[in-house]
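Appendix B. Raw example, untouched.
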Amino acid sequence: MVVGSFISLHGSGLWYVHVRSSDRLRQAQNCPETVIYLCHGLRARDRPSRLTTIHRESDVTAPARTHDTAHVRNIALVGHAGAGKTTLLEQLLARSGAIHSPGTVEKGNTVSDFTGAEKKQGHSLETALCNLEHDGIYMNILDTPGYPDFIGRSISVLPGVETAALVINAQSGVEMVARRVMRYAEEQRMCRLIIVNHIDTDGLDLRALLDEIRDSFGPQCLPLNLPADSAKTVADCFFEPADTTPDFSSVEAAHTAIVDQVVELDDKLMELYLEQGEALQPEQLHDPFERALRRGHLIPVCFVSAGTGSGLNQLLNIFARLMPSPLEANPPAFIQGEGESARPVEVTGDPDGHFIGHVFKVNVDPYVGKMGIFRVHQGTLRHGDQVFVGERRKGFKVAHLYRLQGRETSEINRVVPGDICAISKVEDLHFDAVLHTSHDEDRIHLQSVRLPEPMYGVALELVRRGDEKKLSDALHKLAAEDPSLRIEH
């Protein structure tokens, strides 16, 4: 099974690079300068900045306003390659007005696949952060890579969000990466949602696919909508149950199943439900719905087609109205100290508390340097604040705070609990670092996510012995961006 990456550096002229699959090895062998591919297909001297804001007329129009915590949603699109995560996100960005028109993977002009290698390969290699607004809710959405080679880059970002939205290709069914990522999300006590994409594909048996999903992830996988009119559209089964006949099952049966599952966790609501029956409104179900998500008692399923647009408006409503805010999700598992002296630390969403943030993604750019993408868990971080990284006694002054929309950046003055933003040009930044503004939070860390283990190694022999430092720098940059890679000297 393909599960990890590993890099070993031995001697002065032979470099052993342990990778996850033969696919990366084949790409490396086909490249005259192996290190060039490992740096995402572009030589350092040719490589344009992936992150620096380009001041020109752009298709990206994402807002740079600050939102209160209750109106923030953080969601990671996860799943196997080919599920359509990038295309789905592109369509959601366009429908919400975050971009003027959707790009396509084939044309290489999507917001989230912006590196040269991603455009050339036609699939995601990095996790990209995008954002949009819908119905007064601000959403940070992560587009994660789906190939097994890069599963470490998908899993490592899960601590940054409350919800893992598994995207499944309706034609392919439940694939290996889908199973693994859902298992990791369950271990992280995340709320989970399943999005069945490409429902417009001819010859599908979507009833059988729903059965496969429930066999794979449990009977708590229940549909919020159902395909209708030969999957040309979808029928709402929760917010405003549609007066239409779906392609299988019935709207009434799906609605009843969801309500039954939710009210099981609320005795008072159960009594009311038995009295009122179908008269319960979505607003009455909100709190127990969130509780069911937190406990894994419910995994909603929704059907969409990113190609035709079916179900996308409903999906935005589901994100905004049903997925948890940072205040509604399971609290992060912060710990202070090590070993026997370690103790749990309560980190709240109090905007007036000491600032605590967690770096869940690092990008390295030749122009910007290290850029750390972090989630704020407590307090409010402002431009000019003094911040410490981990246990380091010397802090740094926050010169810039950035929102990311793919490769584009927009500067903001402050960031509140639950929100995600980025800082740059801080060499001490690294994956899993905890940022804080008070030494009271020294030695605090977030319970680590279990990353995949490496499987095997590949040897790289330099043609010119004088290039050892260049290769070493390149490999260390790659390891900084992918925490599943390891380097040994």
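End of appendix B.
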